[in-house]
Amino acid sequence: MRAATRTRLTISITLSRDMVEDVRKYQREEGFPSLSATVEHLIWRHFLDSRTKDYYLSLTDEERAEQEAWAAFATKQALTIFSRD
């Protein structure tokens, strides 16, 4: 089976020296192979975080209560399962 390839585009951006230093530090800490991979990861993470936030802000009170009930149930089940020795 052949691996899917993504078309990559080359772009040019201008960032402050401090921003580049912070991104390079993050790259080293997280072990990304390149500055491009690091920036792409950070953009995707921001995009997904923003979409997740929008989703939860859009919930009605009823939907939020249902989510909280499921979370409480899942937490209780996890504690039961993982507290077994």
The SSE order reads: HHH
Task: List low-confidence stretches.
Answer: none
Largest sheet: none
- How widely separated are the two ends? 42 Å
Residue-averaged pLDDT: 92
User: Outline, from the CA principal axes?
Assistant: elongated
Number of domains: 1
Which class of secondary structure composition applies to the elements? mainly alpha
Number of helices: 3
Beta fraction of the residues? under 5%
| Quantity of strands, as a count | 0
Describe the structure in your own words.
- The protein has 85 residues and is an all-alpha fold.
- Helices cover 71% and strands 0% of the residues.
Summary keywords:
85 residues, mainly alpha, 3 helices, 0% strand, elongated
Briefly, what is this?
This protein has helices at 17-30, 35-58, 61-82. By secondary structure, the chain is an all-alpha fold.
Chain-wise SSE layout:
Layout: H1 17-30, H2 35-58, H3 61-82
Helix pairs in contact: 1-2
